[in-house]
Fold this sequence. Notes:
Largest sheet: 6 strands, mixed
Domain ABC transporter: 6-243
Order of helices and strands: EEEHEEHEHHHEHEHEE
Organism: Rhodoferax lithotrophicus
Strand order of the largest sheet: 6-7-8-3-9-10
InterPro entries: AAA+_ATPase, ABC_transporter-like_ATP-bd, ABC_transporter-like_CS, ABC_transpr_LolD-like, MacB-like_ATP-bd, P-loop_NTPase
CATH class of the domain at 6-97 and 166-235: Alpha Beta
Protein name: ABC transporter ATP-binding protein
Strand content: 25-35%
Distance between the termini: 27 Å
Oligomer: single chain
Pfam family, one: ABC_tran
Amino acid sequence: MSAAQIELSGIERVFHLGDSEVHALRNLNLSITAGEYVAVMGPSGSGKSTLLNLLGLLDRPNTGIYRLEGRDVTTLSPDEQAQVRSQRIGFVFQSFHLVPRLSAAENIALPMVLAGLAPAQREVRVQQALKDYGLEHRANHRPDELSGGQRQRVAIARATIMQPAMILADEPTGNLDRATGEEVIHLLEGLNTRGVTLIMVTHDSALGARAHRQLMMEDGALQHDQCHTTPLAAATTPCAAPT
């Protein structure tokens, strides 16, 4: 898997609620080096999820430029952005966002179906993912027949099945007990050690401290950009210089 280089310049995101304006992101300038492990932290309403949605091309800024791997993706059409999402970005959510009527194997295969990959190729990749994430015995079970940890493992397998450059994780352990959450974080960190850029939104300071870099958001602005070296982070790419 290759990793994503991110450059945000002058990003503003404003929401209109009735007669009022909410500045969800304010003049955000940020560089994230390919292969970094970044925690995005801050109180509710600070802009964390808005930032993640923009990075994932699920939303567009009102002003500013977002370059992903050197390409200005803010100017792309919706179809072009969808193609970039499919090929370069994986998502892991707190609530899993699995399709209830599909089995674990079918949920994992879904991005490949949408991308038009051949059935034989999908089958090979799904079987390998089921093995990699310890889900072989749950392949034909629907989400309501899986534990929380198993559902999140399915979600991670689905997020990585297209071999993305970047994983965006929004409170990935929020609905899990501590032991299961640790297991999930180790899976995500394992992807990062293989070179995938990992950006995680979390309210958990202990979880955020595991990342090589912490971005502290407040009122839509980046208040602190802190790097540190831990035994885990030492193996990752050094922090990008704040901009």
